[in-house]
Structure formats: structure tokens, C-alpha cells
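Progress report, Aim 2. The chain analyzed during this reporting quarter is listed below.
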Amino acid sequence: MSDINPSLIMKNYQEGKSDKSEAMSGLISIIRDYKNLEYNVESLKILNELNIPDEDYFKVLESLLFTHGYFRHHSNNIFLYTRQIVLEELSEKFPAMTIEVLGEYLEFIRMGPSPEYLVVIDHIWWAKGNKLSLLKTGLYNLLKESIEKYEGEGVVRDEAVMLALIELYWCEEVRKLNYQGDIYGYQVDHYCDYRVNSNGHIIGLYVSAHSDPLQLFSIIDNIDRLKYFEELMLAGCSMRAIPESIINLNKLSFIDFNGNNLEKIPSFIEGLTNLRHLDLSYNKIEKIPETIGNLKNLELLNLIWNKIKEIPKSIKHLKNLRTAWLRDNEIEVIPEEIGKLTSLEDLGLDINKLKEIPESIRNLGSLKQLDYFLTKIKELEKKI
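Predicted C-alpha cells for the chain:
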């Protein structure tokens, strides 16, 4: 059986072997397969050449734009590039109709968040291409009230837009946090808070207890646009993996991803060299990567209530580490290298499978607090 491709579909249509409806159906099926970019580009070109009535052509493009496969395909470059082409075609041929539909979707979202419609709206705003300027203008007008509210709080335009988009996810405003102290220990009692610096750039975003991780995709996928970001909390959000885009936030000093479903600490975290606070407590992490030793500025490491079995020797490089909370894990051995942590003041080892502590523990001259309750450690006093 020969390969079904756009040229063959067009040939069969021209020879009368299929009608326009069958040709359209075949081309749409090829596009939605998202396996061959060349086929997708050709299929969209042929659709444009079939002289479909405007109303029908708009419905075809709309159906391709709001396909219900985003979360299955969102990392597929063919899918994303195809959506870009569809957006440009809609912007050029049907700007007014598209903006009207977007308005309807926004009202629908406000009644109850729909992740698929949200990511399309988000994609329109961040997509590149001059042809999309009309759609972006229309989208801005639809979100104008929210955007102006955040601008009024001192946030620069693009970042105010992002807050307006995030607001759609929760159907509730993102609250400005005026707290000026160290954010660690501050109780965030709102779905989503943010902090902004004197130049209008967002430096902190604090999301708490959101049950649907799919609705965090927009935040995560576009987080690297916030170049001034210093603090990020995504707590209790059912997140299964730390997004790689986070490494672009080279100013990041504070991460709190407690209470998620994380199973590992990715090796690329070593790129966050300004990180001072890392809280990954209450997850399902089994291993600490050797690359953690590259976080030379780290002062606090909270890994309480995970499934960690061992501590890497590279921990010796964390010369600025003052607090290490490792309680409620499955750790059996602490490496001798821990004695290199001369700044360490607080070490929590409660509820692990430890039987002994290395002799090098004597070298921790700054240590003020050492907890080892419910372990099998004996005669610890002789070592310190």
C-alpha cells in the first residue's frame, strides 16, 4: 500500500477519485498525526488552495488550533510549528473572527478553567511572527483590565500579561506580596502570590496547593522569560518533574517544590549556581545526584520525607551549607566527606536507617543542632 501523503490526496481529488470533503478529511488527518513537518506544511497549503468557503475554512483552522491533543503533543516540535502556521493563517485571513472566538473562550475559561483553551491563548501571546500582531492586539484588549491592574501594581507590560494569563488558570487574581523579608518560613495563604522589584520585574512567584498539574504547563513552559526571577515556589502542585527550562533562570536563589510527586533531582540543577535555598521535602526522591556539589552557594537543603538511600560524596563541596534536613528517609550511610561542611550548623538525620556516624563529624566546628532520633546510631557522644 502506497504512503498516504498530501500530493496523492490532491492527485486523487483532481482526477475525480475523491470529492472535496474527502480531500479535506485526508489532509486534516495527516496534519493531526504530527509526524511529518513537510507533509503538514504541504497539507495546510493545499487546504488553502481548495477554495473552501471562508466559513468552512475558518472552522477547519479553528479545529486544528483547538485540538484536544496539546498535553500529549506539547513537546513535539512538529505540533508546535504546525500550530504556529495555523495561528498565522487565522491572523491574516480571519483576525476579527478569531478574536471573537478567543473572547468566547475567555468567558468560558472564567466560568471554569479549560487547560486546552488556556495554552492556545498563551501560545498566541508568546508566538513569534509579525502576522500575529492583530491577534496579540485583540488578546491584549480582551485581557486589558487584568493587565492594567498588574501594571498599576508596578509590573512591566510583558510580565503583567503573564500574570493576567496565570490569573485565568485560577479564576482569581494573583496577589502582590509586599513582604520584604526572607521568604523562607513565610506562610503563603493564597493560591498564587508574586513579588516585584523596584524596576517592575517579577522576582518571585509562589504557587500553593493547586491540584491540577496540567494547568501549570503555561507557567512552567514560559517561566524562563522571567529573567529577573529569584524565587520560585510550586508547592503541593502534583508536579512529577522539575522543568529543564528552569536552568535559564540564572538569578534563581530560592526553590521550594515541597509536597509534589517528584521522583528525582535532575542533574541539570547544577546550572543554578546562585541557588541558596532548595526545598524538595515531601516528595518521592530516591537519589541525590553528584552534580549537587556544584551548588556552591547553597545554604539550606531540605529533603525531609523522601526515599533517599545515600548521600553523594560531592556534598563536600557545599562549603556554605548551614542547614541540611534529611529526616524521614532511608539513608543507611553518611559519607566521611560530610566533615568538610565546616559551615554546617543544623543537621537533621531523624528517622533513617543509620547505624553509625563517620568520625569526620568531629570536624563540624559550627554544628549547633544534630538530630538522630529513631535511628540505630549508638555511642555518638564519643565522636563529637
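The beta strands are 175-176, 192-196, 202-208, 231-235, 254-256, 277-279, 300-302, 323-325, 346-348, 369-371. Residues 77-93 form the longest helix (17 residues). These observations will guide the mutagenesis work planned for the next reporting period.
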